[in-house]
Amino acid sequence: MPLFDDVDRRFAEAISRLSYCNPFLPQRLHLEREALGDAFCDEGPVWSKRIHMDDRRKNIERLYDCTEKLAVKTRQRLEAGEPATERHLILYEDVVLYWLYHRYREHLRRSLEDAARSPGKPLKANYWSDYRRDFESCLRISGRTMPTGHDPGHIFACFFQLRRAFQHIFEYVLGSSMPAARLRAAVWQSIFTHDMRRYRRTLYRRMGDFTTLVTGPTGTGKELVARAIGLSRYIPFNEKQQQFDDFAGTFFPLNLSALSPTLIESELFGHCRGAFTGAVADRVGWLEACPLLGTVFLDEIGELDAALQVKLLRVLQSRTFQRSGETQDRRFAGKIIAATNRNLAEELQAGRFRDDFYYRLCSDQFAAPTLREQLTDSPDDLRSLILFMVERIVGEDDSELAAEVEVWIHDHLGPTYPWPGNMRELEQCVRNVLIRGRYDPLPRRGAHAPAEPYRELVEQAAAGALTADELLARYCTLVYVQTGSYEQAARRLGLDRRTVKAKVDEGLLRQMQDQNSS
User: Fold this and answer.
1) CA 518 to CA 510: how far, in whole Å?
2) What's the pTM?
3) For 419-445, what is each residue's pLDDT tens digit?
4) H/E element holding 476?
């Protein structure tokens, strides 16, 4: 008889696909439902952090129980000499790996807590021996040669990376809207690529060669996204000492807009004594200090001086650089993540940003959504975001304060307030209401403001960052502003007047009206 009957085979195939899918994409839900059938529990389409809730889900616990039973049953069949095709053996391997990961998921989570309490120290994995015993028991069956030949230490390191990546993305990228969910999925893909099997086989060694570019307006959390990627890189497991190297000190952020070109050069590349006035000793730059598994984050890369673009281009091309004032080549071993709130297409066209530099930066690129996009998709998200910020500011959950802030925002800013400062502005709004009982937004007028709503619309549409409903709402608003009446806008758009009126985005409308009156 075959290794799997039809029911077990279908379950194993769903688990196999589930093991390698992006956990923040809707595909995960479909596969969980396919695997569990009537036992599936609908826990919502978006996997996001909420107050008083961790990342555990009922479906995962049920899948763990089912995979354990199937793994035990199938191993017994293999030990008894049951014939099996290569395809069936790969399915069995995938079921075992899924079960093993979730068997040690809590151990891995506690390891992350230990790392947070003792930064800078190697991380012991005292459960390695238990894991190794389970691994050998399931995947080293006498008389059987498994097709993949997984190495237990490498798989253990992959498990630790999966747990770290999920934890960092889950903690750093907040919000239950679909734009926030798509951002989490994009971060996950930046770490593991879209093909996790290939990543596990070979690409885990090479991800430092890929530069990541995160775009998006100011205040959208680009540094948090970069930190999630940088702290989630693959770390080999030292089986002899049963430990991982420390990862907490491997992220090196540098805000380029806050420093002069000379200081940027010194911070990045280092310098020799006497290289310039004030260089009284040799200095090791961050490119040199960054270890093999470390990450240098260059915030506001759009502000970088043209001469420094050339120097950094060499690093991206050849992975080599020189300290200021010397000719000795040194090697950069880590990964670079860059971020900008500028429109790089405009910067390229204006000649302020080099084409060759841009095309070295964008091997992995994605955009962070605005707070307005998130709240348009999920208005109730405002309440949970305020709760998180209150907890961060006061150090504990204060529902009364959060409710006070939410009521103030509703009464004084309204549900369509555009939040031009994004998450950063919302946090400052919470602080202002906490201290003064009010928040006074800056007026959105000035030399650069008039073109902003129109430019944002074009940029977001060109980047494919808008849903169909969002695009229609923004376009209806634009045409309404141009025509001055719902009737004329409806005729131009070929829509019903009531539809146009319902679709007009009030926050965007105020911005465009401010533009026309300034």
Assistant:
1) 12
2) 0.83
3) 999 999 999 999 999 999 999 887 654
4) helix 468-483
